[in-house]
Amino acid sequence: MDAIKILIADDHPVVREGLNAMLSRETDFKVVGEAKDGADAVNKVAELKPDVVLMDLRMPEMDGVEAMRRIREADPQVKFIILTTYSDDDYIFSGIEAGARAYLLKDAPRDELFKAIRSVHRGESLIQPVVASKLLDRFSQLSRRAPSGEELSERELEVLCLMAKGAANKEISAELNIAQSTVKTHITNIFQKLGVNDRTEAVTQAIKRGIIRL
Fold this sequence. Notes:
Blueprint: E1 4-9, H1 13-24, E2 29-35, H2 38-48, E3 52-55, H3 64-74, E4 79-84, H4 89-97, E5 100-105, H5 110-121, E6 126-127, H6 129-140, H7 154-164, H8 169-176, H9 180-194, H10 199-208
Parallel strand pairs: 1-2, 1-3, 3-4, 4-5, 5-6
Helix pairs in contact: 2-3, 7-9, 7-10, 8-9, 9-10
């Protein structure tokens, strides 16, 4: 299996070097480059074609949110993990809206970062509980009266709530005591009912429509 190609975008050299050294010890990771700001990240992604970008938010020249938007326009296949010191609601909301599939604070344990990279590469999402709570709170304030669309079953709602907490299929299976194949079926049904294509969109739409909230 090919290693996951990773680009690190952060304006602090010490942070980049530390992440590079840490990630390079994992046999399934390959750090293909570093970017010192958002504009540099846009250029490096085009040149190096990473699978996953670890993106800081506040950087000179161009911030992480704008960089993600520009990169997605050029290459929708690139996946983003926000790794930042900022847990303010506005940063979280903007980062997820720009396409991040994971949002971690820089004090997150290394195992959580490794898990996020592998999960995002598989097309899943992972958001730390402290961040997820703020994200849910922000969305719950939006469009509370929006139509909920086709009604989700009680089990689908349980699966959706666990997805909102960043749980992977295996974790949902264990929590609800159901087979992973059943979890996949529920997720497929959720996607169809909400008219979305991935987990992050499903959670975002569900919160916007008031289907789930804190």
